[in-house]
Amino acid sequence: MTIREHIIRSVHEASVHAELDLSVVVACVDASRSIERCLEALVDSCSTLRTQIVVVDASRDKTAALVGRRWPEMEILRFPPGTLVPVLWAAGLGRARGPGVAFTLGNIVVARPWAQALRSGLTEASGVGGPLVLHPQSGVVDWAIFYLRYSAFLPSQLPAGSVTGEIAGDNAAYLGSALERHASSFTKGFWEVEFHRRLRAEGQRLVSTRQATAAVTWSVPFWPMVRHRFVHGRHFGASRVAGGTRPGRIVFAAPLVPWILAARAARRVWSERGHRTRFVIALPMFVALAAAWAMGEAVGALFGPPRLQ
Asked: 91 and 176: one domain?
Protein backbone atom coordinates (compact mmCIF):
# COMPACT_ATOMS: atom_id res chain seq x y z
CA MET A 1 0.00 0.00 0.00
CA THR A 2 1.39 3.43 -0.94
CA ILE A 3 1.62 6.33 1.52
CA ARG A 4 -1.24 8.05 -0.27
CA GLU A 5 -3.47 4.96 -0.09
CA HIS A 6 -2.61 4.47 3.60
CA ILE A 7 -3.57 8.04 4.50
CA ILE A 8 -6.78 7.96 2.45
CA ARG A 9 -7.82 4.64 4.01
CA SER A 10 -6.93 5.74 7.55
CA VAL A 11 -8.70 9.09 7.30
CA HIS A 12 -11.75 7.37 5.81
CA GLU A 13 -11.87 5.13 8.87
CA ALA A 14 -12.01 8.29 11.02
CA SER A 15 -15.40 9.15 9.60
CA VAL A 16 -16.97 5.81 10.42
CA HIS A 17 -15.65 5.01 13.91
CA ALA A 18 -18.58 6.10 16.06
CA GLU A 19 -17.02 4.74 19.26
CA LEU A 20 -14.67 7.74 19.43
CA ASP A 21 -15.48 11.42 19.81
CA LEU A 22 -12.08 12.85 18.93
CA SER A 23 -8.54 11.89 17.95
CA VAL A 24 -5.65 14.10 19.06
CA VAL A 25 -2.27 14.11 17.29
CA VAL A 26 0.61 15.48 19.40
CA ALA A 27 3.78 16.29 17.45
CA CYS A 28 6.93 16.37 19.59
CA VAL A 29 10.37 17.79 18.80
CA ASP A 30 12.79 17.79 21.76
CA ALA A 31 9.85 18.18 24.14
CA SER A 32 11.16 16.32 27.21
CA ARG A 33 10.94 19.43 29.42
CA SER A 34 7.28 20.01 28.62
CA ILE A 35 5.71 16.75 27.44
CA GLU A 36 4.50 15.54 30.83
CA ARG A 37 2.81 18.87 31.56
CA CYS A 38 1.34 18.83 28.03
CA LEU A 39 -0.12 15.32 28.29
CA GLU A 40 -1.37 15.73 31.85
CA ALA A 41 -3.44 18.71 30.72
CA LEU A 42 -4.53 16.92 27.55
CA VAL A 43 -5.66 13.78 29.37
CA ASP A 44 -7.58 15.91 31.86
CA SER A 45 -9.25 17.88 29.07
CA CYS A 46 -10.20 14.70 27.22
CA SER A 47 -11.60 12.95 30.29
CA THR A 48 -15.21 13.76 29.35
CA LEU A 49 -14.85 12.40 25.80
CA ARG A 50 -13.95 9.10 24.18
CA THR A 51 -10.58 10.17 22.87
CA GLN A 52 -7.62 8.64 21.08
CA ILE A 53 -4.24 10.33 21.64
CA VAL A 54 -1.38 9.66 19.21
CA VAL A 55 2.09 10.99 20.11
CA VAL A 56 4.43 11.40 17.12
CA ASP A 57 8.01 12.06 18.19
CA ALA A 58 11.13 13.21 16.33
CA SER A 59 13.30 14.18 19.30
CA ARG A 60 16.95 13.84 20.17
CA ASP A 61 16.07 13.83 23.86
CA LYS A 62 14.04 11.31 25.87
CA THR A 63 10.56 12.53 25.00
CA ALA A 64 9.24 9.21 23.65
CA ALA A 65 10.71 7.27 26.58
CA LEU A 66 9.06 9.62 29.08
CA VAL A 67 5.69 9.17 27.41
CA GLY A 68 6.07 5.40 27.22
CA ARG A 69 6.82 5.10 30.94
CA ARG A 70 4.09 7.45 32.13
CA TRP A 71 1.35 6.56 29.60
CA PRO A 72 2.07 3.05 28.26
CA GLU A 73 -1.43 2.90 26.78
CA MET A 74 -0.75 5.77 24.36
CA GLU A 75 0.25 5.08 20.79
CA ILE A 76 3.73 6.49 20.08
CA LEU A 77 5.19 6.85 16.60
CA ARG A 78 8.94 7.55 16.33
CA PHE A 79 10.61 9.43 13.49
CA PRO A 80 14.22 10.53 12.90
CA PRO A 81 15.33 13.76 14.61
CA GLY A 82 14.90 16.69 12.26
CA THR A 83 11.59 15.50 10.84
CA LEU A 84 9.31 18.52 10.48
CA VAL A 85 6.09 18.97 12.43
CA PRO A 86 3.79 18.86 9.35
CA VAL A 87 5.25 15.45 8.48
CA LEU A 88 4.69 14.25 12.05
CA TRP A 89 1.09 15.49 11.96
CA ALA A 90 0.45 13.67 8.68
CA ALA A 91 1.81 10.46 10.17
CA GLY A 92 -0.41 10.81 13.23
CA LEU A 93 -3.37 11.58 11.02
CA GLY A 94 -2.78 8.23 9.32
CA ARG A 95 -3.49 6.52 12.67
CA ALA A 96 -6.42 8.72 13.74
CA ARG A 97 -9.81 6.98 14.09
CA GLY A 98 -12.06 9.71 15.46
CA PRO A 99 -14.71 11.64 13.48
CA GLY A 100 -12.77 14.78 14.35
CA VAL A 101 -8.98 15.13 14.50
CA ALA A 102 -7.19 17.73 16.65
CA PHE A 103 -3.55 18.75 16.26
CA THR A 104 -1.20 20.14 18.88
CA LEU A 105 2.45 20.13 19.99
CA GLY A 106 4.36 18.63 22.88
CA ASN A 107 5.10 22.08 24.29
CA ILE A 108 1.48 23.30 24.37
CA VAL A 109 -0.65 23.07 27.52
CA VAL A 110 -4.39 23.05 26.84
CA ALA A 111 -7.17 24.41 29.06
CA ARG A 112 -9.62 21.95 30.63
CA PRO A 113 -12.54 22.85 28.25
CA TRP A 114 -10.25 22.47 25.22
CA ALA A 115 -11.28 19.05 23.90
CA GLN A 116 -15.02 19.55 24.37
CA ALA A 117 -14.82 23.04 22.83
CA LEU A 118 -13.09 21.76 19.70
CA ARG A 119 -15.47 18.83 19.34
CA SER A 120 -18.47 21.14 19.73
CA GLY A 121 -17.02 23.60 17.21
CA LEU A 122 -16.91 20.87 14.58
CA THR A 123 -20.72 20.74 14.60
CA GLU A 124 -20.79 24.12 12.84
CA ALA A 125 -17.61 24.24 10.75
CA SER A 126 -15.01 22.04 9.07
CA GLY A 127 -12.22 23.48 11.21
CA VAL A 128 -12.09 25.09 14.65
CA GLY A 129 -9.18 26.64 16.52
CA GLY A 130 -8.46 28.54 19.70
CA PRO A 131 -6.24 31.39 20.88
CA LEU A 132 -2.70 30.89 22.12
CA VAL A 133 -1.06 32.53 25.12
CA LEU A 134 2.36 32.37 26.77
CA HIS A 135 2.72 29.98 29.68
CA PRO A 136 4.10 31.66 32.84
CA GLN A 137 7.01 29.21 32.85
CA SER A 138 8.58 30.21 29.55
CA GLY A 139 11.91 31.81 28.65
CA VAL A 140 13.36 34.27 26.16
CA VAL A 141 13.67 31.74 23.33
CA ASP A 142 10.05 30.74 23.91
CA TRP A 143 9.01 34.39 23.76
CA ALA A 144 10.76 34.93 20.43
CA ILE A 145 9.17 31.83 18.93
CA PHE A 146 5.76 32.76 20.33
CA TYR A 147 5.74 36.30 18.95
CA LEU A 148 6.97 35.15 15.54
CA ARG A 149 4.55 32.26 15.15
CA TYR A 150 1.55 33.04 17.34
CA SER A 151 1.08 36.79 17.83
CA ALA A 152 -1.79 36.67 15.33
CA PHE A 153 -3.56 34.14 17.58
CA LEU A 154 -3.51 36.06 20.85
CA PRO A 155 -7.00 36.28 22.39
CA SER A 156 -7.17 39.96 21.39
CA GLN A 157 -6.34 39.08 17.77
CA LEU A 158 -8.54 36.00 17.26
CA PRO A 159 -12.17 36.81 18.02
CA ALA A 160 -14.66 34.04 18.63
CA GLY A 161 -16.84 32.96 15.72
CA SER A 162 -16.14 32.82 12.00
CA VAL A 163 -12.51 33.38 11.00
CA THR A 164 -11.68 35.07 7.72
CA GLY A 165 -7.92 34.65 8.19
CA GLU A 166 -6.16 31.65 9.69
CA ILE A 167 -6.43 29.45 12.75
CA ALA A 168 -3.25 27.97 14.21
CA GLY A 169 -2.83 24.36 13.17
CA ASP A 170 -0.96 23.86 16.45
CA ASN A 171 -4.26 24.39 18.29
CA ALA A 172 -7.03 23.24 15.97
CA ALA A 173 -9.33 20.39 15.01
CA TYR A 174 -10.92 19.36 11.71
CA LEU A 175 -13.73 17.12 10.56
CA GLY A 176 -12.56 13.68 9.50
CA SER A 177 -14.71 13.95 6.38
CA ALA A 178 -12.94 17.16 5.35
CA LEU A 179 -9.53 15.60 5.95
CA GLU A 180 -10.58 12.55 3.95
CA ARG A 181 -11.48 14.63 0.90
CA HIS A 182 -7.96 16.07 0.78
CA ALA A 183 -5.94 13.14 2.11
CA SER A 184 -3.97 12.79 -1.11
CA SER A 185 -2.44 16.23 -0.49
CA PHE A 186 -0.94 15.19 2.88
CA THR A 187 1.68 12.77 1.57
CA LYS A 188 4.37 15.43 2.11
CA GLY A 189 2.96 16.70 5.39
CA PHE A 190 -0.12 18.35 6.84
CA TRP A 191 0.43 22.05 6.02
CA GLU A 192 -2.61 23.70 7.54
CA VAL A 193 -2.53 26.97 5.55
CA GLU A 194 -2.74 25.04 2.28
CA PHE A 195 -5.51 22.86 3.71
CA HIS A 196 -7.45 25.96 4.81
CA ARG A 197 -7.19 27.32 1.28
CA ARG A 198 -8.71 24.13 -0.09
CA LEU A 199 -11.52 24.15 2.47
CA ARG A 200 -12.45 27.72 1.61
CA ALA A 201 -12.41 26.88 -2.10
CA GLU A 202 -15.16 24.37 -1.27
CA GLY A 203 -17.13 27.01 0.60
CA GLN A 204 -16.28 25.55 4.03
CA ARG A 205 -15.88 27.65 7.19
CA LEU A 206 -13.27 28.00 9.90
CA VAL A 207 -14.27 29.19 13.37
CA SER A 208 -12.54 29.94 16.66
CA THR A 209 -13.60 29.51 20.26
CA ARG A 210 -12.13 31.09 23.39
CA GLN A 211 -12.72 27.88 25.35
CA ALA A 212 -10.01 26.17 23.30
CA THR A 213 -7.29 28.51 24.56
CA ALA A 214 -3.88 26.86 25.00
CA ALA A 215 -0.57 28.02 26.48
CA VAL A 216 2.85 27.73 24.82
CA THR A 217 5.58 26.65 27.24
CA TRP A 218 9.19 25.49 26.69
CA SER A 219 9.72 25.33 22.95
CA VAL A 220 12.23 23.69 20.64
CA PRO A 221 15.80 24.91 21.38
CA PHE A 222 16.95 27.94 19.42
CA TRP A 223 19.21 26.39 16.76
CA PRO A 224 16.87 23.54 15.81
CA MET A 225 14.11 26.15 15.53
CA VAL A 226 16.30 28.22 13.18
CA ARG A 227 16.55 25.18 10.93
CA HIS A 228 12.82 24.53 11.13
CA ARG A 229 12.03 28.16 10.24
CA PHE A 230 14.36 27.96 7.22
CA VAL A 231 12.80 24.74 5.91
CA HIS A 232 9.24 25.97 6.54
CA GLY A 233 10.11 29.22 4.75
CA ARG A 234 11.51 27.30 1.80
CA HIS A 235 8.30 25.31 1.53
CA PHE A 236 6.24 28.51 1.67
CA GLY A 237 8.41 30.27 -0.93
CA ALA A 238 8.02 27.37 -3.34
CA SER A 239 4.25 27.33 -2.79
CA ARG A 240 4.04 31.08 -3.51
CA VAL A 241 5.84 30.60 -6.82
CA ALA A 242 3.50 27.71 -7.65
CA GLY A 243 0.61 30.09 -6.93
CA GLY A 244 1.88 32.65 -9.44
CA THR A 245 4.24 34.94 -7.48
CA ARG A 246 7.42 35.81 -9.35
CA PRO A 247 10.59 34.41 -7.75
CA GLY A 248 12.42 37.71 -8.11
CA ARG A 249 9.80 39.50 -6.07
CA ILE A 250 10.31 37.07 -3.17
CA VAL A 251 14.11 37.19 -3.38
CA PHE A 252 14.37 40.99 -3.47
CA ALA A 253 11.89 41.37 -0.62
CA ALA A 254 13.71 38.87 1.63
CA PRO A 255 15.95 41.43 3.45
CA LEU A 256 12.85 43.38 4.52
CA VAL A 257 10.83 40.39 5.71
CA PRO A 258 12.28 40.14 9.27
CA TRP A 259 11.53 43.82 9.93
CA ILE A 260 8.05 43.59 8.43
CA LEU A 261 7.26 40.58 10.62
CA ALA A 262 8.69 42.38 13.68
CA ALA A 263 6.54 45.45 12.98
CA ARG A 264 3.40 43.33 12.62
CA ALA A 265 4.08 41.47 15.85
CA ALA A 266 4.84 44.72 17.69
CA ARG A 267 1.49 46.19 16.62
CA ARG A 268 -0.31 43.12 17.92
CA VAL A 269 1.38 42.90 21.31
CA TRP A 270 2.18 46.52 22.17
CA SER A 271 -1.05 47.16 24.04
CA GLU A 272 -1.08 43.74 25.72
CA ARG A 273 -0.26 43.75 29.41
CA GLY A 274 3.00 41.96 30.10
CA HIS A 275 3.93 41.43 26.47
CA ARG A 276 5.66 44.70 25.62
CA THR A 277 8.78 44.13 27.76
CA ARG A 278 9.06 40.47 26.78
CA PHE A 279 8.80 41.35 23.11
CA VAL A 280 11.62 43.91 23.34
CA ILE A 281 13.88 41.47 25.20
CA ALA A 282 13.17 38.71 22.67
CA LEU A 283 13.50 40.96 19.60
CA PRO A 284 17.08 39.96 18.61
CA MET A 285 16.14 36.27 18.60
CA PHE A 286 12.86 37.11 16.85
CA VAL A 287 14.76 38.84 14.03
CA ALA A 288 17.20 35.92 13.73
CA LEU A 289 14.34 33.42 13.41
CA ALA A 290 12.51 35.67 10.96
CA ALA A 291 15.70 36.03 8.89
CA ALA A 292 15.96 32.23 8.69
CA TRP A 293 12.36 32.14 7.42
CA ALA A 294 13.05 34.88 4.83
CA MET A 295 16.21 33.15 3.60
CA GLY A 296 14.33 29.88 3.29
CA GLU A 297 11.53 31.60 1.40
CA ALA A 298 14.02 33.02 -1.10
CA VAL A 299 15.74 29.65 -1.57
CA GLY A 300 12.37 27.98 -2.06
CA ALA A 301 11.40 30.56 -4.69
CA LEU A 302 14.58 29.86 -6.64
CA PHE A 303 15.14 26.14 -6.13
CA GLY A 304 11.82 24.69 -5.10
CA PRO A 305 10.56 23.00 -1.92
CA PRO A 306 12.82 21.08 0.46
CA ARG A 307 13.14 17.33 0.49
CA LEU A 308 11.19 16.58 3.65
CA GLN A 309 12.02 13.79 6.06
From this structure: yes
Are 236 and 90 found together in one domain?
A: no
pLDDT tens sequence across 244-264 = 999 999 999 999 999 999 999
pLDDT digits (tens, 9 = 90+) for 145-164: 999 999 999 999 998 999 99
- What are the CA-CA distances from residue 240 to residues 181, 262, 277, 304, 305 (Å)? 23, 21, 34, 10, 11
Q: Are residues 114 and 255 in the same domain?
A: no
Q: What does the pLDDT look like over 55-98, one tens digit per residue?
A: 999 999 999 999 999 999 999 999 999 899 999 999 999 999 99
Going by pLDDT thresholds of 50, 70 and 90, the confidence category of residue 8 is low
Based on the number of CB atoms within 10 Å of its own CB, is 238 exposed (0-12), middle (13-18) or buried (19 or more)?
A: buried
Gap between the Cα atoms of 77 and 27, Å rounded: 10
216 beta partners: 108, 134
> Do 211 and 227 belong to one domain?
no
Strand partners, 24: 53, 102
**What pLDDT sits at residue 2?**
54
In-domain check, residue 308 = no
Prediction pTM value: 0.90
